[in-house]
Specification:
Blueprint lengths: L22 E2 L8 H14 L7 H14 L3 E5 L2 H11 L5 E5 L4 H8 L4 E5 L10 H7 L4 E7 L8 H11 L2 E5 L7 E2 L2 E2 L6 E5 L12 E5 L2 H10 L4 E3 L2 E2 L10 H12 L1 H19 L5 E3 L13 E5 L8 H10 L2 E2 L14 H4 L8 H9 E4 L7 H16 L1 H15 L11
Parallel strand pairs: 1-15, 3-4, 3-5, 5-6, 6-9
Antiparallel strand pairs: 2-10, 7-8, 9-10, 11-12, 13-14, 14-16
Bound molecules: ligand T4K.
């Protein structure tokens, strides 16, 4: 494992890959093992494995505290958390969402036969553009579902004003934004409800897991019942519910992860600074920076590759990195409007989504977290720098060596 300095060092030229083992974007952070094992022993000793166990309650208290809200309802994952919040808020008809996000945001609506209507995003931050939202409101619209993508917060003030003026519910997919703030306020208390993900790939993880947070007492009561089939007593069900419960092993992992949260943030911040230093000056690359003065979790290292300026295209850079065993990702390509069933529902959606299309064409997400250190980052950056500086030769080598060997590394849906 060493910095690549010359074309001949690259794997496409026959050199050994930069890393022997794959380097993953979503490599989980792990809290102290002893603390985890001791919590797991406790679960087994108590023989209380799920259904509102004591570790889930403790997890909920700590997440609510960190998010500065009165209520936290832990769920089995973020997508189910979104579905339940959407249902408890009685959204129906159409709900406006950004087209540039993970597919779960739209699926959580479509799964309940609510139509996601795709708004464009801000070209610099990649979060939903309130002006685009306003233009998409119809008599069928019941809500706005914003996404704090990459931990960058939505313009909650503008969205809140639109929602109030047009009588809409406002909810946030905060899957990326646990531990982040906006204007000094922690993410969690914006809109009617916000939903976190604690999936293994998130900086704080509970293996699988999520949480709905809100300051609305009645909404919290409904969500709590809905995530347990709608039971209000042993023999009484109040409404349609589902099984959205978090179990005790997941809560044990989540609590152990929360114990180490500050150290995860510090590692991510250090990694981000290293990437900023190492990638500095490479033509056509922009490292997305979180807003100054806010708390952030630095969970994603997002590089925008400008197709107009960068000599090597984003997809070629991606292929080059994979040949070196760096499994970078082009989240959230190609945009939800190009995934089924949305592509068929809205064949012309792309006409209103120029910034989404641009973001989807440029984003490259690089590995960070506990498993990365400055040395590894310098190596990743050296591959990128070499790729950009020797773009013509690299492109030519990729065409003959990589594409035929790795046809399934990435798949491209049909345009538009
Ligand atoms: N809203 C937004 C905006 C989201 O980003 C997400 C999830 C959700 C809602 C829904 O939340 P959950 O229902 O998931 O709680 C991954 C995650 O599975 C997903 O949670 C996440 N967003 C999304 C951005 O990333 P994939 O399809 O990229 O996963 P996969 O299997 O390709 O793994 C990602 C990378 O992590 C790979 O390089 C492998 C590595 N990895 C993964 C796991 C699970 C590991 O090294 N170890 C592991 O244990 O979706």
């Amino acid at each position: 494992m060493r910095v690549k300095q010359d074309l001949g060092d690259l794997a496409i030229s026959g050199g050994p890959p930069a890393f022997e083992e794959p380097v993953h974007v979503g490599r989980p952070n792990l809290g102290p093992r002893e603390a985890l094992f001791s919590r797991l022993e406790g679960v087994l000793d108590r023989r209380w494995l799920t259904n509102d166990g004591e570790l889930v309650h403790e997890f909920e208290r700590r997440v609510a505290g960190a998010a500065g809200v009165r209520h936290c309802i832990a769920t089995c994952n973020g997508e189910i958390g979104l579905e339940i919040a959407i249902r408890a808020l009685e959204l129906r008809g159409e709900v406006i969402v950004p087209a540039f996000t993970f597919v779960a945001t739209a699926h959580s609506l479509q799964w309940q036969e609510i139509t996601p209507v795709f708004a464009d995003v801000d070209p610099r931050t990649h979060v939903i553009d309130p002006r685009s939202v306003e233009r998409l409101i119809t008599p069928k619209t019941t809500g706005i579902l914003g996404v704090h993508l990459w931990g960058q917060t939505c313009d909650v003030e503008a969205l809140g004003a639109i929602a109030r003026r047009r009588g809409l519910k406002l909810i946030f997919d905060a899957a990326h934004a646990f531990g982040c703030s906006r204007r000094g306020r922690p993410v969690g208390g914006f809109g009617h409800a916000e939903v976190f993900s604690f999936h293994a790939t998130k900086f704080v993880n509970s293996l699988e897991g999520g949480a709905v947070v809100t300051d609305d007492d009645e909404l919290a009561r409904r969500i709590r019942l809905m995530k347990n089939f709608g039971f209000v007593g042993y023999d009484d069900v109040a409404f349609v519910g589902t099984n959205g419960k978090m179990n005790e092993f997941c809560a044990a992992m989540g609590l152990t992860s929360l114990d180490a949260m500050d150290s995860f943030v510090a590692i991510n911040a250090r990694n981000h600074a290293e990437y900023a230093r190492e990638l500095n000056g490479i033509t056509g690359l922009r490292l997305l920076e979180p807003p100054a003065g806010e708390r952030t979790n630095w969970q994603y290292v997002v590089v925008d590759v400008d197709p107009e300026r960068c000599p090597l295209g984003r997809d070629d850079l991606l292929d080059l990195l994979w040949t070196e065993n760096v499994q970078a990702r082009r989240y959230f390509y190609p945009g939800l409007h190009r995934m089924e069933p949305y592509r068929s529902h809205f064949p012309n959606a792309h006409l209103l989504l120029p910034s989404t299309i641009r973001a989807a064409a440029g984003v490259l997400v690089l590995p960070t977290g506990q498993s990365m250190d400055p040395e590894a980052i310098a190596i990743v950056a050296s591959v990128i720098r070499l790729g950009v500086e020797r773009a013509d030769e690299v492109r030519a080598a990729l065409r003959v060596t990589v594409r035929p060997r790795h046809p399934r590394r990435r798949t491209d849906p049909e345009s538009p």
